[in-house]
Specification:
Among the domains are: 2-49, Urease, subunit C, domain 1 (Roll), CATH 2.30.40; 56-144 and 266-438, Metal-dependent hydrolases (TIM Barrel, Alpha-Beta Barrel). The protein is globular. The protein has 20 helices and 17 strands. Helix content is 35%, strand content 19%. The chain has a 6-stranded parallel β-sheet. The chain has a 4-stranded mixed β-sheet with strand order 3-2-1-4, with helices on one face. The chain has helices at residues 74-83, 103-113, 129-134, 138-146, 167-178, 191-203, 211-215, 218-235, 247-258, 269-273, 276-283, 296-308, 323-327, 347-356, 363-377, 452-460, 466-469, 471-476, 483-486, 494-502; strands spanning 2-13, 16-25, 28-33, 41-46, 51-54, 56-61, 86-91, 120-123, 125-126, 151-154, 183-187, 238-241, 263-267, 313-314, 395-405, 423-433, 436-440. The chain has 531 residues and is α/β, with parallel strands linked by helices. Belongs to the metallo-dependent hydrolases superfamily. Hydantoinase/dihydropyrimidinase family. One of its GO terms (molecular function) is allantoinase activity. Keywords: Hydrolase. Residues 53-438 form the Amidohydrolase-related domain.
Length: 531
């Protein structure tokens, strides 16, 4: 007796597909069979020959629930991920109060997030310039031993609880992370250049939205990547460039790979499909992000990077902000509005529509960049990232022919997107995590039925016992509230959060279904460049 039969699933086989049946037991794939006559299961789902991918992974999210609950929480964030066909997210350590840079801080974050999550999640580890200066670098190995997948450093400022690194501090971080065998993810923008030209443009009175991209120029990313490559060469650390925005960046990573350097990169859907001249003029601060949007030439060179292997996979840098207090406050300009926007809902459909359906990427490459490569790079493979016996029964089911238009009515809590108005062909229609349907576009789902008491317990209060368990952290960071949250609109209007959650359709599991996934092993992607 199986738990589930996924019937008539069209699964990838290289660049071709086969229609077969997938057998699931105890949340794992236990069989793949062309014949299921006489096979019994508690549930059978007929996929009707729709494309069935190994569960897609977004390896770069900032859900920011802990400290910034007005922006997003893990319930709205993971519900948006499930709606977009993502079965596993990997969250960043930086945008929480406190940031997750020790095992205790990491455990606190997991204890707060898990009761809200509807998809599985792994965690990045944290290391900053402050850790170098204060002699806290022992936290790197301890986080690695606990199961984080990688470490993040910022060359430019992020939030006060996550200080940027100077060049020598970054070198020290490279050395410490190299000893763990894990990747070190770098936000690659040269701080001095960005800071100088932003101030110069501000002093000159430039307030047009496009000035944001022009001040934080392509050269700032280029020289930052070159420095990261030099540090990787010196320390043999596994350099990973996160949210790479430029075509020259892809070329630099490709050349580094050919020289045998441990270098990888990711890009995001917005760097593949949006250019700053059009998007910033149309959407203003709602298209502001760091690194900023670039040119159409960069769009095409990054698509080429995905094809030739200099860009290893896709992630979103999902980081939405509150419109009323952080994006469109009356006194804000393009310089003071917060940089970031949502992405987990739209990553998979954009890659399906603009990548696979338009012939920019093959089917095998699509599977690599949406699922397999991130799973391998972050040590989650083969638990995640493949359709194989013994792997978690995670599937993203796609209607390749469904035509639709992205609107600003998002599952993520922010209510805006720079992709508004984009017409797409191809859409996730079911998301399955560990053999359970987490999202079904045709169903009402569980979230509209949550009671006031359930929402209070799950979203507005910390889990029972957490404050006592982490009393030292709560003493240092009262209520875990950021200054931004104290000034936010939703702080005084929590009913808007409840209303938003109840408006989310199609989520078929209760909050808390998602599980924390520790790194399984250390795995390194091959340094393959094809032309």
């Amino acid at each position: 007796m199986y738990d589930l039969i996924l019937k008539n699933a069209r699964i990838p086989l290289g660049d071709n597909t086969i229609v077969t049946n997938i057998l699931v037991k105890d949340e794992k794939i236990s069989g793949i069979s062309n014949c299921i006559e006489g096979v019994e299961a508690k549930e059978t789902i007929d996929v009707e020959e729709q494309l069935t991918l190994p569960g897609c992974i977004d390896s770069h999210t900032h859900f920011m629930y802990q400290g910034f609950p007005h922006r997003e929480n893990f319930l709205t964030g993971t519900a948006a991920a499930a709606t977009g066909g993502i079965t596993t997210i990997i969250d960043m350590p930086c945008c929480t109060v406190p940031s997750a840079r020790s095992v205790d801080q990491l455990k606190l974050k997991i204890d707060l997030c898990q009761p809200q999550s509807v998809v599985d999640f792994a965690m990045w580890g944290g290391v900053t310039g402050e850790d170098v200066r204060e002699g806290w670098m022992h936290n790197v190995k301890e986080q690695a031993d606990y199961g984080v997948v990688a470490f993040k450093v910022y060359m430019t400022p992020s939030v006060p609880t996550y200080p940027r690194v100077t060049d020598p501090e970054m070198l020290e971080c490279f050395r410490a992370v190299a000893e763990t065998g894990l990747p070190i993810g770098v936000h690659a923008e040269n701080f001095a250049m960005c800071d100088f030209y932003v101030k110069k443009f501000q002093k000159g009175g430039k307030l047009d939205a496009t000035a944001w991209s022009e001040a934080r120029m392509e050269l700032a990313e280029k020289v930052a990547i070159e420095l990261g490559i030099s540090f990787a060469e010196e320390t043999n650390a596994r350099l990973h460039i996160v949210h790479m925005s430029t075509g020259i960046g892809a070329k630099l990573i490709g050349e580094a790979k050919k020289r045998g350097i441990n270098a990888t990169s990711e890009t995001c859907p917005h760097y593949l499909t949006l250019n700053y001249q059009d998007a910033l003029k149309e959407h203003g601060a709602f298209a502001k992000v760091a690194p900023p949007l670039r040119n159409k030439k960069d769009n095409e060179e990054l698509w080429e990077g995905l094809k030739n292997g200099s860009v290893d996979f896709i992630a979103t840098d999902h980081a939405p902000y509150e419109i009323e207090s952080e994006k469109n406050r009356e006194d804000m300009t393009i310089w003071t509005a917060f940089p970031g926007f949502p992405g987990v809902e739209t990553m998979v459909p954009i890659l399906i529509s603009e990548g696979y359906n338009k012939g920019r990427v093959s089917l095998s490459k699509l599977v690599d960049i949406l699922s397999t490569n991130a799973a391998k790079h972050y040590g989650l493979y083969p638990k995640k990232g493949t359709i194989a016996i013994g792997s978690d029964a995670d599937f993203t089911i796609i209607d390749l022919n469904k035509e639709w238009t992205i609107t600003k009515e998002t599952v993520t809590m922010c209510g805006y997107t720079p992709f508004k108005g984009m017409k797409l062909k191809g859409k996730p229609v079911k998301t399955i995590v560990r053999g359970h349907v987490v999202y079904d576009e045709k169903q009402e789902g569980t979230l509209p039925q949550l009671t006031d008491e359930e929402l209070k317990t799950i979203v507005h209060e910390y889990p029972s016992g957490v404050e006592e368990k982490y009393s030292e952290i709560f003493e240092k960071f009262p209520h875990l509230h950021s200054d931004e949250y104290k000034r936010s609109y939703r702080k005084d209007h929590p009913e808007l959060i409840d209303k938003h959650i109840r408006g989310i359709k199609g989520i078929m599991v209760k909050p808390g279904f998602g599980q924390f996934v520790k790194r399984q092993s250390i795995q390194i992607l091959p340094k393959t460049i094809t032309y």
